[in-house]
Structures
1.
Amino acid sequence: MSTVSTKHRNRKNGKHVLEAKAPTPERPQPETVALPQQTSTPALKPPLVPTPAPDMTKRAWLIASFVILVLAIALRFSALELKPMHHDEGINGFFLTNLLRQGVYKYDPTNYHGPTLYYLTLPAVALFGLSTFAVRFMTALFGVGIVWLALSLRRCVGAFGALAAAALIAVSPSAIFYSRYFIHETMFVFFTLGLVVAALRFYETRATTYLMLAAASAGLLFATKETAFISVGTLVLAWLVARSRATSAAAATKASPKRASTKRSAGEEEEEAASSSPLPWFFDTSQPATQLGVWALARFLFINILFYSSFFTHWAGTVAALDSLKIWTKTGTSEFHGKPFGTYLTWLIQQEAPILALAVVGSVVALFERRANRFAVFAGAWAFGMFAAYSLIPYKTPWLVLNFAVPMAIIGGYAVQVLGERSVAGPKGRARSLLVAGLAVAVCMYQSAVLNFREYDNDQYPYVYTQTQRETHALVNEVERLAERAGTKQIGVTITSSEHWPLPWYFRNNPRVGYTGSVSSSYNSQDVPIVIGRESADSKEDQSAQLRAALGAEYKQVGVYRLRPGVRLALFARRDLANR
């Protein structure tokens, strides 16, 4: 999908003149769908943006887009292994390891979310090996993809609006933090935005390419996480709000002839059609509307069956996918991770205040401006609809913020666009919009730098949620040093603590690591030179005293390490290894 508009606007005699390139054999027009009961089908639907965007040359657009994408890449890929793997990342890594080494993945709705995370990570593992960098590489890449998709909304929110939205997402604390996290959420939000962008392009062009892309995005969305029904339901409601606003605006226009809507020129429509390059024949087949809908539904179902059946090797997974909705409904209404209604608002104010403020302004403007920008109304309803939906659900975790922070950044970008177009005319208006966007980006970037590269395990920050402490790296490194002293990489280790994730990820290459969950009466120091147990002030959870009695003088306590808030692990090693 092109993210670059080839439009060039000049001003002549007080009117906009559009210079458009005619279609060429190298840039074919997309095939269009013949809709029933229509005498003629335009190449494009009426524009969603009622006023032209501020002037911006193609060169300026490309440079600005490139800078934003480079910034997004740098913030997501730099020091990607700095933060220890989270509890959930360790479990996802366990599933991925089994899939890679045993060729087995069986979807179970009680075990977290959908299969796409594991299968889509396999190419990165093939490139970089099974490592923390490799598994986080894919989520970071999808995080950059979200920024790229935001740039493709130029026609809907204007050039400066799209750039501002992309820049806000590029530096958003939540967008960066969870792009550097091997969990489902970043992929999930990417597919949600992909569905919106593809559906929008299909609305404009009627090119079947985009309907098939929308169906594929929807299929991948549902195959990623069972909460897709919340996202899709909110998108539908947002569309109804935008449609209602457009209807009321049209009625007001009829009542007041002076408020004539701006029509696009034939040249603008022709150029937009020319800029749409269809995919190969097997992905772009023009069909009557009903048949096309059937093909889109078939594509959606095929993708879900493909992933949930583990590529046709575990058919029970397709039935389990339906059961996941029932299980999640119970989880979402339970007290597990239950928090007050205003929790997400508090978190947004603490970490995403500039994005939240711009989103409020953009949504208010979209709702009450004289000539409605239907996409802006939709984006505002989408952002605050998702915010309301997740606030109403008792189950609240910080990574869910990403579901409304991204659309908030999009409608926030529209606020920047409107400020440049209407508050002050000409270059002064654009300068003011750039100043506002620059301040918002600077604040978010500072917060992101602190969160992601300094305080990434400080649970005083809302996005740092039961995060594995950096001392875990010291524990793993100490075990590796003890193994080196013993002359082997696969040293015998027994972990007696029931709280031990993500240690199985870090010890994935050592088959001699065992997880007992309890203390034995004695240990063979030759077979098990290292024992790790939980140390706690709570006598019911503390294993230190039991281990000292069971291990005796043959072992020595090397240190105590914080695994995560409230969980500390004591490391015991055979005395001859510990004393070297």
Note: DSSP finds 22 helices and seven strands in the chain.
2.
Amino acid sequence: MRRFILCLLLGALALAGCAPALTDAPATPTSAPATTAAVPPPSATLPTAETSTPRRTPTEAPIIAALPTATLPPTPASAPGRYVDASQGVALRYPQEWTAQPGDDASTLTWVVAPDESVWGVLFSSPLPAAATLEQMAAQIRDDSARNLKDVTPLADRSVTLPGERPARHSEYRARDSEQEYHVVLTSAARGDRIFTLMFYGRPEAVALHRDAVDAISGALELSAPLRFGIPQDQALLWLGGESANPRAYDPATGGGNDLVFSGLVMFTPDLRVVSDLAASWDVSPDGTVYTFHLRPEARFHNGRPVTAQDVIYSWERAADPATESNEVLTYLGDIVGVRERHAGTSDRITGLAARDPHTLEVRIDAPKPYFVMKLTYATAAVVDEANVESGPEWYRTPNGTGPYRLIRWEPHRVQIYERNDGFYLAPPAVRYIIVQLVAEVGLRMYERGDIDITRVGSADVARLRDPGEPLHGELLEAVSMCTGYVVFDTTRPPFDDQKVRQAFALAVDRQQYVDLVADGLSLPARGLYPPALPGHDPALEGLAFDPALARTLLAESRYGGAEGLPTITFTTAGHGSDVSQDVAVLAAMWQEHLGVTIAIDNVEPDRWWDELHAGNHGQIFSQGWCADYPDPENFADALFHSQAQQNLGRYTSPKVDALLERARVERDPDARIRMYQEAERQIVHDAPAVFLSHALHFLLVKPRVKGYVLTPVHVPLARYLRLEPEQP
């Protein structure tokens, strides 16, 4: 009989794989009284959503620092006679002599069973599409529940009111399977994007016997704002996050940080304008080399201390300190006079920084560069509190930032909770809390259950979500990113110190086949470095197109004389153990097929990946990808392939490319700059220091209750712009 009701639910939830409704139910015990024949108890359980237990990596140190542990409101719990699921915002009362049993999965919340087990009730939830009404969905659930029955006789269908003046739909029908007749009673109510249904079923005489209890339980169904960790969900934005065993992932100076907690002098708006943040305004000297930033006098750290120009100087000098070992500081702050000397250890200060007064900061750069202020939107330029940073090695667990949110609770491997900074120097954000769940689970499944509000969508799920008949279709956002995926050759190590070998490897890759296999065709094959949305993208660039015959010819013409003369080649990528990711496997197979080359795979723990690359601990080939931090081709060509660039991890050198990039840095004519960057791109592609593979497309699901979300091609601190739509009753 449990199988019957589960099949009904599966039909209502539009899932597959269920046998006919009642034909596989166990036989009713013959000893049951005729007037209250027992409905067989639950005997089958469906698999629950796949989950995995968070695990510590071997390098993860024990947590020894104090963590934010704000006391949160208590969460109501179930007790005899009352079922409560605070996370779903649903409760019901039932007679003490009835019993409650746990649901089978995230959608089947609970069972309530009559004392003689002749009547069973089940409370379950389903998505409520944005365009659907309560009446429409309640009717669909009712019809789905009867789909595999016959002789269906409607008994009731009307509007009712539940506690809290909550509108609901009540319906009843009788129907038969091949053996017996059933009476089914359904009550459905909606809240937000979910519909909750309480369904009772049993033989007609049993339902009649327990009618008062059935009506009382149905009428006591309560819906309220769900609680997440004691916080009303209508006050919280729900995210899925993760934890790193590497402290550098949390430090703005080393490319981590958190734009909920930290902020900088300037920021991007959702339409990619650079606007003031900690700095109320700034001036630029006529020659374009001196920037004077005027800090907001009302800006405060979370502990109330005013932010000063000296705090900015401390933050940037700390980022440039060689002891910090920042892999990003030269990329984003290296234009400032003295940063390179500070990073090299030949100076104990950044000479291009000066505090003219507590709220005025002067910044001198080495040449007039039109993109300079955009670089200051990156995390490396964020401001930190010296006393906080110097408090100990795990200072980042209790950060004293300047951003729109304060971290108030951190339970490792469970949750981080951020509360709105009501003293924020700009308008405080509309959303009071942000709850980041630190669990190892599939984002799409959590989104479908209502556990998170925003999730990225993998390519395997895009086709379903693009279907107009899919309930989540209207919540799908799509955009072209400013990202390029590629693999890098170490041009200083054999065999990739030979340009013809590099070109041969590039020509042996069928990029269309690559994106079809790796991304289900939902990426764009890359012909060059610049993604299509980036200024400077050249649609006429042909690149090193797939040509296996030419690839073999070039390999034979190289100083290695063909595949047999090559040394062992190691491909380093982020991964665990001996696992080989699909993208690496596809490339290795192409090189094996078209060049006769065998590749050894070396995995590096993801937490250590970026640091290991910068330390030079990699094979002759390694995976990389780059997404624009600001919409300018300098962020790609110069940041990645200038011979002195901090991110030039393949150690590629080209005097011609260097000269083009150095001229483009200071060119005031936008069109002339773009032409220089395009010429530099053509030379880089020809020299083949990397194989440019694909440009990603972004797919995201966003709950209708989240307003103001924009899928931007570069990272923008969006939380301060978001609001939550009040729930409609």
Note: The longest helix spans residues 670-687.
3.
Amino acid sequence: AMDQVYVFSPSFLFNFRYGITQQEFPQRRVSQGFDLSSLGFSENLTRWIDPSLATIPRTQIGSLTRISQWEGDGDGTTTSMTHSVVGNFTWLTGNHNIRFGPEYRNYRENRNRFPAAVAPDLSFSSTWARGPLDNSPAPPVGAEMVAALLGIPGGSMTLAGSYAEQDQYFGIYVQDDWKVTRKLTVNLGLRVEHETPITERYNRSVTRFYADRPNPIAPIAEANYAANPMPEIPVDQFRVMGGLGFAGVDGNPRHYWEGQSLGWMPRVGFAYQAAPKTVLRGGYGIFYGSIGINKTNTNLAGFSRTTSIQPTIDNGLTFIATLEDPFPNGLDQPLGAAGGMETNLGQNISFFAEKRKAPYAQKWSFSLQQQLPESFVVEASYVGNRGTRLPITRHINNTPAQYLSTRPTRDQETINYLTANLPNPFFGIPQVASQGTSASRARLLQPYPHFGEISFIDHAGYSWYHSFQSRVEKRFSRGYTFQLAYTWSKAMEAMEFLNRTDPLPYESIAGIDRAHRLTGSGQWELPYGRGRKWGADAHPVVNFFLGGWQLNGVYQRQSGSPLGFGQALFTGNSADIVLPKDQRGPDRWFNTDVFYKVSNQQLANNIRTAPLRYGNIRTDSQRRLDLSLIKYFHINEQVNFQFRAETFNALNEVVLRGPNTTPTNSAFGTVSAQEPPRSWQFSLRLAW
């Protein structure tokens, strides 16, 4: 980094800084010669594992602890580099303090190899333990273990591509701190920003989805469908539309989405001395977020291809994939942009919206501050925030809402109707990965049945926050200081869709909402030792051990987070779920008796009406006191010792974590973990 300050005159200063920041994250290798047979894996499985790395598959059996985790992706690295140039000018003229300057940043990120490309990612499905029907709910526990014991694998393996991305940022600002009168200061500012879309050096990325173009497999698939049509979709209305588009191909631009217009961010504030010891303050500003490399994941579809483990193509009559050979047909090879609209057929896909917009927040506040005797200050504030164009995931390949149940209880008739297996018009088409002879009616009713889930980031989310904030502060004097603050707030958001077919996100209390928060902190220099109230003339040896001690403390208490139960059914209303405080504990955090807990009573294939979260049902409140005792040992002018004794959660408060909220789980309503108990830490620090 290079930092230079230039003084043109006492009233005009210029600061210039140029810097480069680089981070590289090398991945660890697994020990050579690892014995896979010790975990019960067949030697045949090793042909799907990179022999130069001798790693093992990541293996997950339901909710049980993973048998193994990826150790890394071999020699792969992720490297990021940021070039930044910043200039700041300061001009003092009259009663104005004007600051302005430009800023430029260049972000780059490169990666080669990913963990999923080194070994299979094995999991086990609950499907094979269902009964008596194929659409019966899975048992609450043990279903995945059945598949593991029978050797029926699930999961996938990925042949991943590399990428080298870049985006750029430009900004300029001007800020005027204008002292209008002796009692009034006004702050006026404007910042203008522009962030370019991301580009990949060799155009290795999906950019869009062609929703209105026929897919190349349409003639074959539509002919297959005509042989076995559904009554819901006449033959002449069954269309196989849609496919992925790539950067720099077929007339597409190189950038991932269209460029944005300038982001204008005004700032205004004031400070007014209403009385000699009373100050009013207020302000408003707009702040833009980023959608660049630091906030957007690369889309390597076509250049990175995942092969799903498909144990059967006839619903379990016969099995073609086993733990000995999970990929009997080999791995699907990435085609790059050459795959065109046939890329990743039969798989989940995502793309970028063509007209992405950066999210922004509006923030405002108003406060009253009063100075009291004995160096005390009290302050009361109102603080608000509104988030707009926040990113949320939108799914566009859904079973139409008109086919879903609207009953308040389980609708087995609709479930049977939508899960019924029909002839699959995509079976036998080589471009469509992992296809069985049949497909569910729910899937064939989707607008793009030749794909799995189709999603993109839609900036349709928003949030809002209001709070009353107050504090009392004792400024440092007479050897001590402390601060006590209280916040009463409410955070709301629309960051999820209650149903995937909904046009707008659902307004709900935010997961980060904490209605009440109380914090306190303090520092006390014990009044003994040189320069203090007592022991000012103590013998150097006595002062060495007894003087110079300092006690610090931090306390916090806040409301718990709101809970949600998905589509769980319960009787009565949400107030019936809450237990009195004296009845609440880790074995029963809320009233589980009002819920339907049997698997075959759960909702499926229905329109959800239950809210995402309940503001009156929360996790345990957070309570914690941390203390530290510090002693400085002055040896001489060049050498000093510092001793620290620290305790975290000094009162050893039992603070429970969130309870299990899945009604069909045997642990429903119980809490199985707590925040860390009291701990101690001692340290010595030598400075010279």
Note: Residues 26-43 have pLDDT under 50 and may be disordered.
4.
Amino acid sequence: MLLVRVLAVFLSVVAALAVWQPGSAATTVASEESIAVTRPDQEQVSHLFGGRQSLRISRRENPVPGWLVSSANVSIGFIASSWEVVRSVGYSGRPIDILVAVDRKGHIAGAELVRHNEPILTLGISTADIRRYVDEFSGIDLVSAAAGKPGELPDIISGATVSTGVIRDAILRTAQIVTSQSAIAQRTGSGIDRVSYEPLPWRMLETEGAIVATTVKLDEARTALSTAKNQVPDGEAAFLDLRVAVIDPPTIGANLLGQADFTRIMAALAPGESALLVASRGLHSHRGTAWRRSDIFDRVEITQGNRVFKPDADHYQRIDKLAIEDAPAFKEISVFALPAEQFDPAQPFQVAVLASRKTADGGNVEMRIPVDYTLPPRFLSQATAVQQAPPLWVSSWQNKRLEIAGVLVMLTALGAILFLQSAFVKRPRLWRWGRAAFLTVTLVWLGWIAGGQLSVVQVVAFLQSLVNGFQWETFLIEPVIFILWGFVALGLLFWGRGVYCGWLCPFGALQELTNIVAQRLRVPQIAVPFVVQERLWAIKYTLFVIILGLSFYSVEQAQMLAEAEPFKTAMTMRFMRAWPFVLFAVALLVAGLFIERFYCRYLCPLGAALAIPAKLKLFDWLRRRSQCGRECRLCEQKCTVGAIDPIGRINPNECVLCLRCQVIYHDPSTCTILKRRATRSARPVQQKGAS
């Protein structure tokens, strides 16, 4: 127990360091990684453009950072780094850097892998395989890719689904941003000029109408809200000083936000969306606080034609400070993503901020502060950008509807079992066959078919992402894994680690089912003394700490050590792997024939990782009696994982929530205490009959 407490403190410190602001580790790493972006050499440039020679490159910072490629003083394309443009982070939580070249026709001329830290070597997939996969993007038409035409994109490599999926997404997003915001692709139509960039100060942007302002003084607001119960103070100070701007044109957005934030915000937009900046200062807040509960910014109202809509929290990004030097100091700065189907930034629209106060009779008095906005003609162009394809995780969720539905059914059934466990365990036959059936589904369907085996690698990847810049998209690429982790995270608070280890772990299910067969075949079972078992538990916690600590030094070495998990061999690759890995997995299963869940009990680093946050468990639904451990030790003897100590306490760090002890607790024909009570209650009846 002391070891577990020490580990909990250690992980708390790691998490605190990961999210510490300002000057956090995330900031430091991002800064160091950005410095590592280097100029492509001549060989790389030639490779990216199909072997062409005598190509020249020149660095460009705006509107997209990268290198303009020319031949005989004629530009033929653009090269950008995926890390520099979209901050591509892999499944390992570390940056992936890919050079992506786009030609003037809107095609990917070529792509080259520069670096990665993905856990692929342990799967028998080499870096050379990944490089060949990246090379297959040469010639991809971005218009066809955005339209989702079948066969247009290379197939994801089996066994490295998430890693190659992230790589594919990074290449496409980088190429689409380059095509959208750089003058290298031929386009037709009309819309916003997303190409041109000119350094302009705040004063010039206001003068040209790119930024529109309105100011309402306290006296004006006091008059408009005169019937309010709490009066607005009087004076000439600002009640609301408001600024509004469409920031899609680089001349507006890159000047206001700086190139890094501008690129980040543009990359986060869905296809067709536009970005609206709203900045304010004064007594009144344009955001308020109600949106934190409702997820709707009810104080901001955007009107275009007969369409009126309010931004929501999912399409909001907070900006702490503008990058442009001569801007006023604003109290609040917001960027709202506006949907294409409801908003055309090239057409006039109105932004209004609402202010309301309670009246003495319990009603409301409201004031509307409008700003009419029209994007100046100089920011309109006869060019429109290539539409961005939906993020990879969206298509992944769409393509795995069956697996998602199956997982949700399983989790619903498991939730019902655990919430209604008293009714479940009072029927021993139902518990026995129900548990065996559930574990069979976990093994066959969840493990071998749906690919739902969790791993300590994912825990390390999550912690690494906190350090290197967390991105939801990386984890959303595998919907089954994402849903399982979401349920497990909630389950840790309700039931502890056993909600996964005892019911949803495919390899754990394989161990338990093979042990059931072994017992039917009368294979002798070894009872490990509690004092020995306590010391063996330390192995998995030590292994987890070593893997986690090593990951901050070398992700690749940590991934190699994570091969202590047989999950890839037994589940992901279904024993179709090199013989040393298969031999290791089979050896663990053989040991489990004599000691049930041998691997889970003593070696599993994932179980250790889950046990540490499970210390925060809010409920204790495993029932015990005061006599347990003192007058009766039957549950201790029957517990197949040794999670009950000699004095009857259940160790939540080791319990797999099999509910065997609860079956005994409610069974009057098994529980020693219930039998004793039944005997005592029968004695008076016998004595009365004898008299």
Note: The longest strand covers residues 349-358.
